[in-house]
Amino acid sequence: MQDNWKIRSVYSLLLNRYGFLNWWPAETKDEVVIGTILTQNTSWSNVEKCIKNLKKKNICSLSAISSLDPKELAPIIRSSGFYNQKSKRLVDISHIITERYSTMEKMSEQPVDELELFLKNIKGVGRETMDSILSYALQKPVFVVDKYTMRIFSRTGITGDSTPIDAIKGLVYENLGNDGDMLRNLHAMLVYLGKDHCKTKPLCAECPVKSVCNYFITAGP
């Protein structure tokens, strides 16, 4: 673990570039949950096509999806890739959530610890998906760690190459507190930075955080 003070600097630099992004792009809490499953191993543009298809058929809700046969759902979400697997996961999670909590609003009233225990036992809900649901659908103060977070934090020197997810999250909470809006915006800005500049082969010249980035300082422009 190194240079953890940089989290605040990175947040400030990114905020200056991107501002408040109001991510996750969704009209309802149900839509967020649906999106977290659809976005696994695919691009967001493909997810948007699926969401549009679901809305056209008036089934973009957990209650509607829970009553479907996965075989009915699969062709509707085809553009997301792995659509047979995802259709089953979507039907399962929709059924399990609606059976237990009825609505996302009622679910959001529960404490984070209970929700984590509930979500992590649902097949197809990994750590990133669970944290995305907690943060964006249920509005809990949870930071989502994804591949962009790990790449950017490692290159800037905030963390090491193999820092565990729990340690990364702890470091973020230590430096930024438990302001849900700030945590959500940091994650969103890191996604944008990862797509715009901190790619597998980085484009450092116009990167907003290059002034505090170990990779740029060491490798040069």
Automatic annotation (TrEMBL):
Keywords: 4Fe-4S, Endonuclease, Hydrolase, Iron, Iron-sulfur, Metal-binding, Nuclease. Residues 38-196 form the HhH-GPD domain. InterPro entries: DNA_glycosylase, HhH-GPD_domain, HhH_base_excis_C. Transmembrane segments: none annotated. GO terms for molecular function: 4 iron, 4 sulfur cluster binding; endonuclease activity; metal ion binding. The keyword 4Fe-4S applies. GO terms for biological process: base-excision repair. Coiled coil: none annotated. This is Endonuclease III domain-containing protein. It comes from Oxyplasma meridianum.
